[in-house]
Amino acid sequence: MTMREFLRLRPAFFLALAVLMAGCTPMGIQPDQADTPEGALAIAESSGYSDTALRGLLSTAARYQDADRHKDARTILRSEAFDKAQGDTLNQYRLLAMGSIIALDDRGWAADFADALPVDQFSKYPDNRQTQAARLQTSTFEIVGQYLKAAQTLIASSPIRPNGGTLADNDRIWQLLKRAPDSQLNAAAQTAIGYEQQGWLELALSLRQPGVTLDTQGRTIRQWQKNWPDHPAANPLPSELRLIITLSEERPGHIALALPLSGPLAEAGQAIRDGFFAAFYEDDKRNEGTKTRIQVFDTNDQAFDALYDRIQQTKPDLIVGPLDKSALAKVADRTSLPTPVLALNYLEDGQSHPDQLYQYGLSAEDEARQIADRLMADDRTQAVALIPWGDWGDRVESALIQRMNQDGGKILNAVRYDPNENLRKTVADLFGIDQSRQRAITIEHTIAQNVEFEARRRQDIDAIVLVASPTIGRQFNPLFAFYFGGDLPVYSPSTIYTGQPDPSRDGDLERVRFTDIPWMLNPDNERRQRASAALPDVTQRYGRLFAMGMDAYALSSKLQLLSQVQGSDVDGLTGTLSMTPDGLVRREQGWAIFQKGVPAPLDEPVTDEPADETRQDAPSRDAAIDRTTPAPATSATAPTSE
After folding, report:
1. What are the helix (H) ranges across 195-265?
2. pLDDT of residue 107
3. 463-466 and 490-492 as β-strands: parallel, antiparallel, unpaired?
4. Nearest to 256 by CA among 330, 310, 320
5. Which of 68, 207, 521, 549 has the fewest CB within 10 Å, making it most exposed?
6. Which residues, including other chains, have CB under 8 Å from residue 191's CB and lie 6 or more apart?
7. Is 629 inside a domain boundary?
8. Given this model, what pLDDT does residue 625 score?
9. pLDDT value at position 608?
């Protein structure tokens, strides 16, 4: 159930709840007895939180909800009054709590609440309330990332819901199961009871093999249908799975790969080409020969609009490329594209383009948006940011601020910097240290006396966004502690990591959280290990671009899937890949944190982290070094789309 759907149904829902609660309690807390939620709680406490008093509180909370006063309802429902609620009182409490959790989109409350919420909770209500309870329960699990429980709720409630067993219902169950971790699916499969639950779990697990090809997926789905012919998911099969079967039989037979293989972008183009062919040969080996033919074109020193016409004469089913942004702009200027194009870069925001143009790349804007999302998930709603000057930095800043605003957060201060300037002053500006000093000077002038003063940073900052190379990041991070910010978590894009563990140097990045592609964060990945053994030089120097090439090949057979099935995605080496309605491929990367100078996985949101005493205490003020002439970024730093 989406937030928009919930808001549309909300008035009728809470009116029904109020009627239900009125029937459950003979004696509520009346408005003339308590005008505020605090007053209602005080009255209930005076009676020792008796069951009658708790029911009165629930009636009051229901009236608040009916009046769209969910914050007041939350004050009552999050109180200790219901810690020992049992039976019907507990059931009604849970129903009301789920209503306000969803209405307020309160993820913190949801995280605490969902852990104690049984999957069969919806079945404990009268028949005419079970459908609505199941919807709220599913959304409550989903809002905190408990996707398996959300799917199990939908599966269990399918017989009682009007749309149970429909294509839309099966599509939603499938998308939830796809997002559940392997470990949870495997554990659930061992204990699952019931034909429907067992069948769904077997279907989800059968398609979880790493690097599985489209052809193999198609065969697996058909075999599952034969094994479970009467299962609700077998007819109708979820839209994504139906399309996989079709695409496995209609994959591109001829692909034109158009990249700069000479000139200034040659090394990048060659790395992408090598990754593309590595994925092709994997596919070819698994399927004992594919019918796909790849033809390579060098785009250097050629007008791509003319090259497109020449490539089209070879009658390809798909063109992969160009890499250069200006060449992509030429493609976008065309009125139509008879042959679809998977470009390896992105157009400027707002630039129009013809149908059948898909865009994919290692976008810095994607990472900025993911940093904003992570900040909000970690309950760090007000951040400051350090971003280098330049067009690239402009795009990062714009994407970061826009997504923070969309998510309900705020970038309090975005300071642009030149790595060759005084970095200490840059951090002082970021934290408002100079304003603190100026306030002290103003006070001295006002009272005409000297005052004792210690500079302070602004106190409304929840986190720092550090956009920098490893070399510059190692200089900035200790300065945060020097200027009273050692207790603030630091978030960075992939540019902060060279791609090679370096504990001695990256000790200066201790506790920095950063987002990066799975290729970099999972060095034990089997596909990475095979590629690294075959091509050690290119995979080490240009690992991110090599992984991009491998994912470009994976996308070549799944463009129709991503564009036609809402919520579908591809588990790639550059992230989980999905597509917007405009044909832009979005990547959801992983997260890591530097611990003792080495990246460690950081999967779950961190909402209450203690101050980092190590960073807080060092360097000392007297020993701090003014590093104003940093070395250039290492060549292994992530190249991003320009």
Report:
1. 195-206, 214-227, 239-249
2. 83
3. parallel
4. 320
5. 68
6. none
7. no
8. 31
9. 55
Residues 219 and 264 in one domain: no
**557 and 214 Cβ atoms separated by less than 8 Å:** yes
Domain count along the chain: 3
Asked whether the beta carbons of 555 and 564 are under 8 A apart, the reply is: no
Query: Is residue 623 in some structural domain?
Result: no
| Assigned token pair, 186 | 């495997």
Looking at residue 394, its pLDDT comes to 97
> 346 is in which domain, residue-wise?
251-359+524-586
- Nearest Cα neighbor of 561 from 185, 196, 207 is 207
Residues 274 and 217 in one domain: no
Burial class (CB in 10 A: 0-12, 13-18, 19+), 303: exposed
Among 247, 263, 293, which residue terminates a domain?
247
Looking at the domain assignment, is residue 631 inside a domain? no
What is the signed CA dihedral for 117, 121, 125, 129, rounded to 10 degrees? Answer: 90
Q: Which residues pair with 256 in a beta bridge?
A: 295, 319
Q: How far is CA 595 from CA 473, 511, 602, in A?
A: 15, 6, 11
| pTM: predicted TM-score of the whole model, two decimal places | 0.73
pLDDT-flagged residues of the chain (< 50) = 1-13, 15-16, 18-32, 440-441, 443, 451, 453, 610-642
Q: In the prediction, which pLDDT does 613 show?
A: 41
In angstroms, what CA-CA distances link 331 with 301, 352, 356? 16, 11, 11
The answer to whether residue 635 is domain-embedded is no
Q: pLDDT averaged over the chain?
A: 85
Q: Are residues 320 and 349 in the same domain?
A: yes
Q: Are residues 511 and 573 in the same domain?
A: no
Residues 123 and 266 in one domain: no
CATH number of the domain that residue 303 is part of: 3.40.50.2300
Give the span between the Cα atoms of 360 and 343, in whole angstroms. 6
Q: Which of 271, 283, 221 is nearest to 554 (CA)?
A: 283
The two structure tokens encoding residue 93: 């409490």
DSSP structure string for 486-547: TTS-EEE-GGG--SS--HHHHGGGTTEEEEE-HHHH-TT-HHHHHHHHH-HHHHHHSHHHHH
Per-residue confidence (pLDDT) for residue 215, from 0 to 100: 78
